[in-house]
Fold these 3 entries.
Entry 1:
Amino acid sequence: MPRIGVFVCQCGNNIESTVDTRKVAEEMKDLPGVVFTCSYKFMCSSPGQEMLKEMIKKHDLDGVVVSACSPHMHEATFRKACEKAGLNPYRCEITNIREQCSWVHPDKTKKTGTLKSMDLTRMTIERLKRNRPLKTISMSVTRRALVIGGGIAGIQAALDMAEGGIEVILVEKEPSIGGNMARLSETFPTMDCSQCILTPKMVEAELNENIKLYTYSEVEKVDGYIGNFTVTIRKKARYVKEELCTGCGECWEKCPYKAESEFEMELKERKVIYTPFPQSVPNIPVIDAPDCVMIQKGKCGVCAKVCGPKAIDFEQKDEFIEEKIGAIVVATGYELMPNERFGEYGYGKIKDVISGLQFERLASSSGPTGGRIVRPSDGKEPETVVFIQCVGSRDEKKGVAYCSKVCCMYTAKHTMLYKHKVHHGQAYVFYMDIRSGGKRYEEFVRRAIEHDGAMYLRGRVSRVYEKDGKVIVQGADTLSGTQVEIEADMVVLATAMVPRGSAVELAQRLGIGYDKYGFYNEYHPKLRPVETVNAGIYLAGTCIGPMDIPDSVSMGSAAASKVLSLFAKEKLAREPIVAHVDTPVCNACWDCLTACPYKAIEKEGIRDREGNIVRWHAKVNEGVCQGCGVCVAACRSKCIDLAGYRDEEVFAAINAF
Amino acid sequence: MKIKIENRALKSEELKHLERITGEVPARCYQCGNCSAGCPLSYMMDYPPSQMIRLLQLGRIEEAKRAESVWLCVSCMQCYARCPKDVSAGTLFEGLRHLALREGKDYRKIKELDMPFLKGAPQQALVCGFRKFVS
């Protein structure tokens, strides 16, 4: 006969006000197998826990039911207390009589609540009678991490982990690390030059012995589970041998063909063999194969002729590299929504309508104009510049419903940069709200208005058109209630931030969640902001949602600290709530295999003495299984059971109702 | 109404003059509307104080000078007492009155006002009125 103890919590008045806990305890006493029951004010308090431990020892209990709040709250607390008293922690079960009983039944006569509590507690007792002691699963860990994305968040995560003594693999899609931050001219609110603060970090990442850089590479495949991932990385053909190239620049000096520069946002041309920008890390060029005449037609080859160390290799192919790692940090960043979607602003048709990132390049001292702010159409200094905010953001119909968060700040910065470079110029900003939450942010915006004379107009722009070499902006100022028209020389659009085009595909490859826009889902938006539902995969930066540089950096560091604490343990311990297959019963129909959302089920063969496979059955990978129970429901031969929630236990609970 | 905003109007000499004589900078105002909320005469004005400042921010000083609001203001200075940005709408009104008066419009001599009017008007109104109309 089992020896079960039942502890009913009053939770002050939270439960007691609608549940007669003493009566519940009294009723449970008579059930077979129950040797001790009581009602207590606060079970989770330290005297409550002490009492629990004492009673386990005194009555020699082999199972404990705590009828209290949701197991989300204190399951861990009570299981730990039981463990200390020498009981297997999984022989402690929680009945939720608060969230699902006392709080939802306001019957002050306590009748409803008491009856329901009794039912629920009785069900748990019956379940407990049949459940078995479980042991936490321990797994080995590969102490190496992978960072996907070499922007500021990814670089920060990689540096922090490398500093912690972990080997890091940093994979970047572009020929150089640096991401979008490398494009920015100056950063708010301190106005320090973006490249000046970023490039030292890039160089540090290149030189750090613990960091292995894979630029111009993409993650092709991810297998395995927390602590034991295997990733396949596609190293795209650079057509340049990295080990030979010295980065002297002779090849891109002499290359006779040009293409539009992606890094300069199409404001400038680059050579077909190129590095994206002068401070590229690594400083090794790539050949843009679709534009290269040698690769396409077999004529030219100038770069190969001038290359001293003979590093050019037109025959190079994509390479696939397999790496074993224990954790992944995803930091894939953002891109801008296509401006062409908003025809009324004339982007693409009117040359002097540009995007925010293009303005950053114009204002950057290393940009296409060397830091001179000029009109793209005629190269003249613009005397009137109109900045339009919320282009695509907060636009449920044509754009996205969310606020891109950083545009208010960078537009204020743009007006300042413009005023500092064109003293007689006048900046106008059309805004809906100025969102400047952040340390020293509001002061920064006010400085742009009061000190640098930016004219802020509250309202949206309905139309932008060209007339006599001017760009006419028609909008509204809702503060004065008038329609306004401005003859501008240049218009800058603060376009919405959206996830990378390939974000969803990568999420599916990694098995992590994403929202309808393609931003990755955190495990918990407040309390676990850098973790994902897939254990061992962490997030950092703007792949989660729009955020500024300080936020991206802190998230990079946060993800790194999560990885470091994961790797700090000898062995990984995890909850034993996983599915098990009764192998002799399995008829290998593989329904479970298709049903499992975590790819935790594998095929396993049984061999005879000669080593021939004679029979197949399903096998659950305990590292990957999340204990969701989908396979249990899918299994036709009823051979899969979930530890801690076996069919026998669940049916016993239902029968007790 | 549709207006054309021009760089010239934003930086007009007259605006600069108004800023100089009042010591107030309209650009500092962030249009929270607290002045209009507290003004005892706001409900009678064609442009409440915050909108008057908006006119100045937009460079529409001529409109501001012509506004009734300037003459309705009793200079109680509640607008200034409440302003979180330390901008005084009352002072700007005073400045606008000066500018308007210097143009020689609406000028009155006290002597020319008739006695029944002077006797019937409350003393406070007379003091305010003299400040506005006769300087």
Entry 2:
Amino acid sequence: MAATISLHLGPAHADRYENNPATRETPWVKWTVIGISLAFFALFLLLPLVVVFYEALRKGWDAYLAALVDPDALSSVRLTLLAAAISVPLNLVFGVAAAWAIAKFDFPGKSFLITLIDLPFSVSPVVAGLIFVLVFGRTGWLGPWFIENDMKVVFAVPGIVLATIFVTFPFVARELIPLMEAQGRDEEEASTVLGASGWQTFWHVTLPNIKWGLIYGVILCNARAMGEFGAVSVVSGHIRGETNTMPLHVEIIYSEYKFAAAFAVASLLAILALLTLLVKTWIEWRAARARDEEAAEGS
Amino acid sequence: MNFKTTRRGLIALALGLSFGSSAFADVNLLNVSYDPTRELYQEYNAAFAKHWKAKTGEAVNIKASHGGSGKQARAVIDGLDADVVTLALAYDIDEVANAGLLAKDWQKKLPLNASPYTSTIVLLVRKGNPKGIKDWGDLVKPGVEVITPNPKTSGGARWNYLAAWGYAKQLKGGNDATAKDFVKKLYGNVKVLDSGARGSTTTFVERGIGDVLIAWENEAYLSLKELGPDKFEIVTPSVSILAEPPVAVVDKIVDKKGTRKAATEYLNYLYSPEGQEIAAKNFYRPTDKKVAAKYAKQFANLKLITVDKEFGGWDKAQKAHFSDGGVFDQIYVK
């Protein structure tokens, strides 16, 4: 079953190669490679993570908690969660629709659409932010109309949400396109021939097939939505307690010599990232198990 | 996964998040300011809220936004709803005025060129002054690494540049050509060009890059206060520039929001003894004579040139030095 091809599944039968003298590497090659990657991992990933928590707790628990319940910090947490809560579901719908259109239908401009979906990955986030300022700013294309009608887009929450949606757009679609392309249209065609409506086919055939890939994409999308700095920084206006997300808040209090507080909020972001990783690992494990069960049923 | 529960949870979350924030104040003001004033306005905003409550009985909620002065002016022009702007130099507020957001004669509406406090530019070096820096002339020596922000985006950086220019020009035989040569050498020694004054301070103080930081006087004192006088020393140069960071009410926005009265009082209160005291405590030079006398010991007495006399005003200085193709573009090659 191809339902999980884009998920990066666990140990790929390494012992098969290890136990065969023809394919086995000499021990020193094996251990050097393992040593290098572990050292690299410790230096570039583990050390910064430890430093964040060490610095955050250097002034003790009380200072740590005080930094987190500061009104500006709370407002930044609220805004970050809000931006993620709006942009992730929207990108889930956009992503499924785009992947569906690309994988299941042929139409002119299809490869152009695929390129467009990748645009947020290739464009610098700062440019992405500037685009919104140029369009929705007071002197921009649509800005004057919005201001006349008393609606604020840039330098307010909507701008931050828009920028977040833009930079996180590709995650769900990118995860689903190869998956749905590999699955082909056979099962959907069968379902339609048997008399199911379009919605029935989607809920009972397509969705179960892409379920794990979809959840995986949503998790990555969410991680990026909460961590985004560049694009959001451009459209934020940096109003304290109003338009600062967590990453922006960290930068601000860091340059106010409140180093422990800055690391405290940073550690909160790190915890969110670690939780994301845990959920991701759990999803991969569940997906692998689902695949194994299906394989067992099939045999 | 149970989608129904998830959906219900999300709705509850969204509802919960939409409340909170500060919708309960009678008046909301937004002060868009430049980089080093963060501590000043944090203290001042609390004092003003008390003052306004005593005077009118209304609760006022003041929000602040800080960044490089030029960048902040740009944000206001692009639609950041500032009731008041308190920027690093007059030219940046002129730009906002040119965009039609406030009257062009804004600088005449408040006393003293609309500058309630002043400052100057000094040099911050590492403890013991290992490179022996005593004056501007030492910054162009080979092997001295200088930290200063980018004059294109930072107001403080423009004061830094003009102070250095002024120094070179008042030397014996100094003229525009020697001054240009001097700043060219100086910027040749610049290691990192951050976008705002606070960014440069962090580069010098926290990241430990460079031998000397050209900084606002208030910013230099703040670094000493925050990080200990055992790490840095302030070097007062022989000559510097009188920096007048001006303030203004943004007419178009206060009229739309109906906040003119509070915004005007917010700026007037800066000139009161209380406001001046807060400025002095945050290392800005007070303009009120009594408060200035009280804090006289805090500020070094040095020769200060002015933009008006030396450069013919900010408009001229900006066009000659910092506009595209101006002197700064000619001398600064990466």
Entry 3:
Amino acid sequence: MSEKYSVIGKNVHRVDGTEKVTGTAKYTFDIVLPNMLYGKILRSPYTSAKIVSIDTSKAEKMEGVYAVVTAKDTIHKKQGIWRRFPELCDEEILCSTKVRYIGDPVAAVAAIDEYTAEEALNLIEVEYEPLPAVYSQLEAIKEDAPQVHDGVELNINVTRHIEWGDVDEAFKECDVIREDHFVCSSQAHMCMETHCAAASYSYDGKLTVWASTQASYYTQVLLAGMLGMREGDIRVIKPPVGGGFGGKFELDSAQFCAALLSKKICRPVRIVLTREEEFTATKRRTPIVYTSRIGAKKDGTILAKEIRGITDGGAYTGMGATALYLTGFFSSFPYKYPNYRYDGYRAYTNTEPTSAMRGFGAPQAVFVGEQQIDLIAKDLGIDPIEIRRINGMVPNYEVPGQAFIQSCGLHQCLDKIDNYIKGRGKLPANRGIGVAAYGFMSGGIFNWFDTPYAFSSAIVKLSIDGKVDLFTGACDIGQGSDTTLSMITAEELGVKLSDIRIHAADTAICPADLGAWGSRETLMNGNACKMAAADAKRQIIEFAAAKMGVNIVHDLDIRDGWIYLADRPERKVSYYDIVREAIRGRDGETIIGRGHYTPHRKGMISPAYSFGVQAVEVDVDPETGKMKLINVVTAHESGTVINPIGITGQLEGAIMMAGGYALCEDQPMDQGKILNPSLADYKVIRSLDMPKTEIIEVDTYEPEGPFGAKEAGEGLTNPTAGAIANAVRNAVGVTITSLPITPEKIFMAMQEKKAKEKKAK
Amino acid sequence: MLKELKLTINGQPYELSIHPRTLLVEVLREQLGLTGTKRGCNEGACGACTVVMNGKSVKSCSVLALSANGAEITTVEGLAKGAELHPLQKAFLDYGAYQCGFCTAGMLMSCKGLLNMFPNPTSDQIRDGIDGNICRCTGYNSIIRAVEAVSRGDYKETK
């Protein structure tokens, strides 16, 4: 018992490992139920149009078609996740009178197979009256712009303001001030499993939905609202999910239409979105245009920042209001700005809605902020690492009126990256290393769904043989929360990882949890699991204390399956024997531990923050502007590491996703139509383009986290685009202020630079 | 209208009657219930449907089932020998070479096809061998490490 922990921090196989490598894991995509029908959704071909009429009669008569639904079959409600603000619930899913983007659903069909359902869609006659439309946020906020939603002035859906200090006064004291403009593009989540759901409504009025979701509780409650059912009559089961990345925690068209169709005919209906629908008719990363002003003293102390962001909201709110807020908050990260002001505006446009995606507004903020820090450092003649040291956040720092940061290893991360860069020495021509620093939250405190605070809960039930059933609403969508939470539970209870069997995200048997978003599972649900395990442990120890005749209960602990005297570990009894006797002694009454977590009085954003610094080395071909990622080195801290293999995977995966955002992933549009809605045309980083990756763990301990752990995964998507932009500047001397950083942009900027230099001579 | 199809899947011979437009992936998933093989794009771009056909990896969404007449197919379900996992499966577990798992079957079968061709591939050959398979979670490097471990002989295959 020399090591501090028995389970956490160890290299383990994931609890869902063998089913995934053997192909036996059953995803929603694989579910086939007896008597099941297959659904397809008819979508708007217009960016904006009035629906004059919908005639479904021909489709209904087609052989093999069992049900057709339109808005007429709904209870005419609009939905959205932030239900405490009804004006943000603006999505009917099945449109009644107006469509607002290419892909907006208007009808759905259930048929004997997918081919028949698709043919039936062609028989539905929708008469549209096309309306003027608007395709970018800057056009949308003009006085005479077409209105996406009636009565929304200037198409402004949400505004957010964050301010502390006296920004205007502070700018007067600055020696250097610079203002820059940046444009951040969109990105598709591109989950390998497209959105899908299988719904089964029974004759006794109960609905079961298997959904590819990252928040089964949200799906349950939102479906209840949209179907006019009691929440308890809906059971949402989350099988293994083929990726989420922020794209799967809202109620989606597959879930709603499958449920509505099934309810109409009392037969199971499965809907799987096609890859094209996935690209054009789900949600996407929020594009943002920024104007940012920053001012510093000669010595590198930054006194003030003022930033304005206007986001392209697309047709509906989704989680866009949160992205708008978080991009403003994380634009202040990871620095101690004494004076700060953010104004954010979210404009509706007639495009695919924008919403949450891994990083949730922060990768955009960091692309802007980390370039501007480098630029002002250059203006001041200060080393980029040094300016980050001067201004970087420290432990126990309070972001005025917003957040309190306890653990923070930013400065250690800066030291590590500084060493790395110095070790690289002089680079060949057209090579450059860029750095970016970042911080990210461990779960959002804000919850505008039902309660003001976010919450997590867990239940631990002991079997007579000592096996542990862990019930949690946490959603493993591939990030590995089932494994992390099982490890935390095993460690706290003092048993082996293999003693834990997790039951997660089935709303009928698991306690409610807000799901996997905002990096909340490890800290929030982890705390709930730890508390539940501690509760069960206390009950076992009480029994063991009586049995062992020790003075006080607190003298006992459990580890590796042994209950032992804390200061005389050789005096021990088997956990398994004690559990058996305890349950028998209680006439078979089960031992149940309960746990919960709610972050009261922890600021407005998150109870904890993780930090890191990333260095990216790039090689630019000056003839073509083509850039190659050579190496990505990340020094980061996430508190106590629970699952080391998991963290490596999160880090490398984040680089693939964030590198793609920086280099090649984009959804260009023509008049609101996405031009590349296929995997042949939407370019992601593949194995040949993936750079080398190095990870440097910096040790921190987060008092608020389970065993000192905090966020590790989502925040890692934040630094890459900014670091790459800085690397390009260091390689070839050009600043690229818009994403993605394409060869064309680099080439044109280099040409412009050459022309300027020639002129100067 | 229906056509006869004879093929061997994971060592088991099958005789099926299928519509000529049926894709190999549809035969596997829908007719035989071998749902380990996934579909991610239906246009040969993502690799989630990769299986090994006559020793080589192919994308089963881009193979008309009838063109596989007489072929020997291995899917992810055929990798393990009884209760004993295939070396690639063991290595994927040890190296965390999967997360959501949706690309994993296709990835494993691409790696299998690669190792059939090059038992000791270089790192670049491995990257090349899985370039047709998108993984949205891992960033590929853990997969490369897993394949390298297998090719080094860290995992013995039971004969």
